[in-house]
Amino acid sequence: MPAVNRNWYSSLFFILLSAYACWESAGLGLGSFSKPGPGFFPFLAGLVLGSLGVVIFLGAWGSWTPSSDIRTGRIPWRPLVVTFLSLLGFRFVFKPLGFNFATLLFITVILRFVERKGWAISIGTAFAAALGAYTLFELGLQSQLPNGPFDFFGF
Amino acid sequence: MDALTNILYGFSVALTPVNLSYCLLGCLIGTLVGVLPGLGPAGAISLLLPLTFRLDITGALIMLAGIYYGAMYGGSTTAILVNIPGETASVMTCLDGYQMARQGRAGPALGMAAFGSLIAGTISVCGLIFLAPTLAEGALKFGPPEYFTLMIMSLSLVTYLTRGSMIKGFMMVCLGLLLGVIGNDPVTAKLRFVYNITALRSGLGLVPVLMGLFGVSEVLSSVGSGEDRTIVKTKIRNLLPSARDWKDSSLPILRGTTLGFFLGILPGIGLSIPTFVSYGLEKKLSKHPERFGSGAIEGVAGPEACNNAAAGGTFVPMLSLGIPATASMALFLGALMIHGVQPGPLLVQEHPEIFWGLISSMYVGNVILVILNLPLIAVWVQVLRIPYSFLYPMILLFCLIGAYCLNNQIAELTLMIIFGGVGYILRYFDYEVTPLILAFVLGPMIEDSFRQSLTLSGGSFDVFLLRPIAGIFFVATLLILSSKLWRHVVPKKGETRRDA
Asked: Closest-CA residue in chain B for A109?
């Protein structure tokens, strides 16, 4: 996406965000200059954010926005989405399945589906990582991580 | 004499077997983090912060400090051998360090980086000993308007120095300030932007936000990039630089140290900018500037000394004013507060063991790093051989478990993942996260001092101009802003007009 368009979209988002922040802050109570209320400071911050957003928004149409700032290169969507979903997946299975199993799944998925390693390497590395994490966090640092029903290192 | 007594007291704290082992551990972890590209000292400190909760505060800070300057050492190894900066402050070391390694002079480059860092570390600790308490004494005269204008000046400086658009930098500051107000209003106890989410009641956690914005987003940015790392195939010998190397490097080390320390003190400058200045200065002063970029040892010695001295300098505002100059310092501040210690000008009086123990440990740490790391370079080279495709899942795993361990709350994990995504999107749209982080950290202090100032002055904004110290900071802020605007309106010869 060209830099001009990126600026256009991002500034529009920040303008909307600032409008929302100002509206919400006004609801909290602005107070007065001599006795600022809880909404005073976020209102100011939102106002400045919105004003600067407008400057970027207007600038995105002008010719002075440098094209040299464009960071070209395609986004590696597939690995990116799989990695992000793996992070979310870890978060959801962490408590119900326990951290050992969550670690196993997380590392296996990333190595197999993002890095395209073979099943044996992926699962083997995941086991080693789970064992390492268990040794470090559970045994070494005595962190209270959820063990879940698959407490297979639970000795 | 007082300083000598204090520093001897500091050494008596730092040299206890327990604190010495924390220092050693911190240095080792820090070097490892520095060697491995992608995590950085802020990420490593945030990762290990929860683990220090059970430690005594002095030991915890000594270990975290070890990680901080250990990462500076480690970063140079990667820069010299792989041409990838282990952390941002080592970018300039790549230019000549890698060329030296290709010419078979990896040993002197690594040795000079280590010795230069030791010299710089020693001098900056001396500077810290004298400057921090003096500044803390002066800071006792600071009221809310002075603090407010100082912090605004710092944020302006950060936006001035951000790559690309200053307007975008300011937008990130505003976003950081908005994120910083989430939670309880300190004056009225009213909940702001909480939406009945229990985890938000006490505000967004610094550590998950930092880990997300720095650690996770950094990894996400490199996923699928197919990064290729080639370690220079050379035998690392002659780690002790020759007399000629010393002759070429001694002045750059001294200049880099002075520059690094004083620039590091300025809140917001960080560690990488001083190294750029140092490299530029050495090139300008050199009789053979054409050698720079093709293996000049001065190009390694100056910036390496500079980043270590700057690392010491960043402790000055944190210890004396309670104002973090970098994201790592924000975490130090967080660590102090978690342990119930109020950072600021009274720290040196109320907790001398922490203040002097930490400063002395920095010197001990610098010595440990040289003694340990020169013989261990072969080990770090082996670490560098681990393919990134195996390494980054482990970094993510550490971030995930680290975020949870903070308070044993799944909400912190969620927060970190969300901010990882936010950080990636911001990077994609060319918004820098550093101003956001500093504004987020300073936000509550800025709001507090702003509201107090207005209440004190009966709603008059003159208070920020008419009080001498506040006025100086205010004028400095205006100068910073107008200089960038000036450069936009009247571009330098050969420079195209660009986004302000």
From this structure: B393
